[in-house]
Every structure is written in structure tokens, then in C-alpha cells.
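Researcher: Structure for this, please.
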Amino acid sequence: MRLRNLIFAFVAGAAILDAADVSVNYASPENLKNVISRYVAAQQIQQDALRGARMEVEIDAQLPRLEKKGTLKVLRMITKIGKITFQPVGQFIGDPVVKKEVITKYLDLEQNEREKGTIAITPENYKFQINAIITEEGKQTYIFALTPRHKAVGLFKGELWLDGATGMPLKETGQMVKSGSAWLKSIRFVRDYQMHDGISILKHLQSTVDVRVIGKAELNASYSSPTWQEDEQPATASSAP
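Model: Predicted structure, C-alpha cell format:
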């Protein structure tokens, strides 16, 4: 019920904004500012709505230079206070080096950096520059180039794709400006989202990481089967398998 109320309130607000923008110049500075403000508000709505969410994540990783591969399925859980945890589902298949040096460290990095809150995509952290506006069937998709205002762990230089009506993210792509780990030289990624009951939910992640000593690591994560545990206590799980 809480999730539905949040979504209803947000969608209703977006509908009002759309009604006011019937004859808007989509590329005008004022409208672009409104789209960014809508996105900032959408982030909070999205964060609140995803509390208590669980998703299955299937992770495929490889170290091409070493010809090593591995696959692991985990349950990604967000507690009521917003803490991200992971729980293995089934057995890891592949080379243990891939599990230790790629998958486990990726899960640790995702949890730890998101909890620090330094990666928020906001005008305080980034400069937004419009790259393109795509109009299909009366709907606008805004593509912004993002440039970090400072060099900090979790910030990236790249692109952000937004749904014009709701401000919800559709895609993020780029390269991290600071890895935050001695074992990483660089991190490049693409995150694709899908809409679920008015909320944008991560669907797929593709990442390429340059790892010291062992070379390039490639990781693909597919997210599926979102559910919400609103009436249960948050599950206890380790931060990574």
C-alpha cells in the first residue's frame, strides 16, 4: 500500500506538470531545468519506493586474458532503512579467481559506495548538458551529458537518459572518475532501467573494469523478479557471497 501511494502521488504530480507543458519548448533552458528538477525529485521517490525490495540478479563475469569465467545468482535486498545486502542463490559455477577478484569485489563496491551517498546524480555533484531530445509517440526522452563537479569515489563522466514525463532514469553510461580501490584502475559501465508500476528499476548492468595485475574484467548482471517485503522484518545477509 505504501508503494502504491508513493507512486500515485508522484504520477499525479507528473501529470499536472505535463498538462502545464502542452506547448512547451522542450529544448528551452527553463524546460531543461524543470526536467532536471523532476529527476531529482524522482530519485527520492524511487529510493523510498524501493525500500523492502528484493530482486534476483544473475551475474556473469570473465577475465579474458586469463581465460577464466564464472556465474553466480544472488538475491539483492534493500532493507527498510535503505541498506543493500546480497544473498547467494544456488552454487557459484566457474573459476574461483573470478568469484574472488571480480564478482565479490563488485558486490562490495556497489553496497559500500551507494551507502556513502556520494554518488547522487544532482546539480550539486554534476554539470548537466543536454545532448539530445528524442520524441516518440508524443513522449520525450532527454539525454544529458554529465560532468562531475569534483573528483570523488562513485561519481562518473558520461550520459544520463531520462523519461521526460516522470523524470525517471532510463539509462546511465560512463566511466568512474575515481575507483576508490587500489585493485582497480578504471571502471566503465552501462545501466539500463525499466519502468515497473511507475518506478524505474535496474534491469541490466554491463561493466568493464581494468584490474591491476590480472588485466581486464568483464561483468554482466541481469536483474529480474522484483518483489516487496513490506510486512516482514528485513532479512539478514552478508554484504557479498
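Researcher: Any notable elements?
Model: The two ends are 32 Å apart (CA to CA). Confidence is low (pLDDT under 50) at residues 4-22, 231-240.
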